[in-house]
Amino acid sequence: MKNVKTAALAAMSLVCMSGLAQAQRTADQMVMAVGAPITSLDPHYHQLSPNNAVSDAIFDKLVNTDAKARQIPGLALSWTAVAPTVWEFKLRPNVTFQNGNAFAAEDVVFTIERLPNVPNSPSSYAAYARPIVRMEIVDPLTIRFHTREPYPLLPLDMTNVRILDKETAEGASTEDFNALKVAIGTGPYRPTAYRNGDRIEFTRNPTYWGPRPDFDRVTYRMITNDASRLASLLSGDVDSIDQVPTTDVARLRADPRVQLAEIVGLRLIFLGLDRLRGANENSPFITDNEGKPLGRNPLSDLRVRRALSMAIDRQAIVDRVMEGAATPAGQFLPPGTYSHVPDVTATAYDPDGAKRLLAEAGYPNGFRIQLNGPNDRYINDSRVIQAIGQMWTRVGIRTAVEAQTWATFVGRAARSEYSAFLIGWGSNPDGSHPLRNILATVSREQGRGASNRGSYSNPQVDSLLDQALAELDEAKREQLEIQAQRIAAEDVAVIPLHIQTNIWATRQGYLHEPRADELTRPQDVHRTPAR
Amino acid sequence: MTLYLIRRLFQALLVMLAMSLIVFIGVYGIGDPVEILISPDADQAERTRAIAALGLDLPLWRQYGVFLLRALQGDLGRSFVYNEPALQLIMQRMPATLELAIGATVMAIVIGLPLGLYAGLKPESIGGKTIMAGSILGFSLPSFWVGLMLIMVFAVQLGWLPSTGRGTTVEILGGRWSFLTHDGLAHIIMPAMNLALFKISLVIRLTRAGVREAMLMDYVKFARAKGLTNARVIFVHVFKNILIPVVTVTGLEFGSTIAFSVVTESIFAWPGMGKLIIDSINVLDRPVIVAYLMMIVFMFIIINLVVDLTYTVLDPRVRLESKAT
Question: Touching check for A120 and chain B: CB below 8 Å?
Answer without folding.
Answer: yes
